[in-house]
Design a protein that fits this description.
Length: about 260
């Protein structure tokens, strides 16, 4: 990354954080945190013996759903809002290329969504600890993998946002994110007779988005041992390569897009 691109990205991160505060997304996180605290102490009042797995399952499922929704909504508005408010014109009037602007918006969305996720996840871990329910070290890998996934998801949503209207982008992104695991399983089940070594099945399976690959919530719930670190390295490579492809597709459209 060039020094100029880094300066632009840093400026966009600052502006994006202030915009997030103005739009009160972090206040939504705070309200959810309060509700989680109240829920935790409700369990604490009635007792949690025998409910440890249930409590962890509900908590990490909620984190996964909220993280997905927040990430999509935060990312889908990055470029369309600039166009709608016409603030994109003074930005591009400066020595900023459209590619640099697209990358900076992706970095802003990734930072904001990642921060919201960490707040929710760490707060949940603290609340679970107050109920004398322990988390295994795989929780650290869960955090790292989810952050990688947030970067990948932001790249996909940013790319879709330059091809689609904001409502269509949000709808399609949520369908692809929440349905990724189901779509992939249906593909394999519907064509099991072709064998998993069939070329077209592997190509289609590789093209489909895999947001579900970045979720280790169930492994945390059931206290799995830590997975080999090379697995996280491989997922990091997938996030970089596939996310980079999404950004490239977005840039190919955005660089020639007529704004207005």
């Amino acid at each position: 990354m060039s020094a100029r691109t880094w300066q632009i990205t840093r400026a966009m991160l600052t502006a994006g954080t202030l915009e997030t505060l103005r739009r009160k997304e972090l206040y939504v996180i705070a309200i959810l945190a309060v509700l989680m605290v109240l829920g935790a102490y409700t369990f604490h009042f009635f007792g949690v013996r025998g409910l440890e797995i249930f409590i962890k399952d509900v908590a990490f499922t909620a984190i996964g759903v909220l993280t997905t929704v927040l990430t999509v909504f935060i990312t889908a508005r990055q470029i369309p809002d600039e166009i709608q408010r016409r603030t994109i014109y003074p930005l591009l009037a400066r020595p900023i290329s459209r590619g640099q602007l697209l990358f900076a918006k992706w970095a802003t969305a990734t930072f904001t969504a990642g921060f919201c996720f960490l707040v929710l996840a760490l707060l949940t871990a603290g609340l679970i600890a107050t109920l004398s329910i322990g988390l295994k070290p795989i929780f650290i890998q869960y955090l790292l993998l989810k952050l990688l996934g947030i970067g990948w998801l932001c790249a996909m949503v940013i790319a879709l946002s330059v091809y689609l209207t904001p409502p269509a982008c949000i709808t399609l992104s949520l369908i692809l994110a929440f349905g990724s695991g189901l779509f992939n399983r249906l593909l394999l089940m519907a064509h099991w007779e072709s064998g998993l070594d069939a070329l077209w099945v592997n190509l289609l399976y590789g093209i489909l988005p895999h947001w579900d690959f970045f979720d280790m919530g169930k492994k945390v719930v059931y206290d799995w041992a830590m997975v080999p670190w090379w697995v996280l390295g491989a997922m990091g490579g997938y996030a970089v390569l596939n996310g980079g492809l999404w950004l490239l597709l977005g840039w190919l459209k955005f660089r020639k897009q007529v704004l207005g």
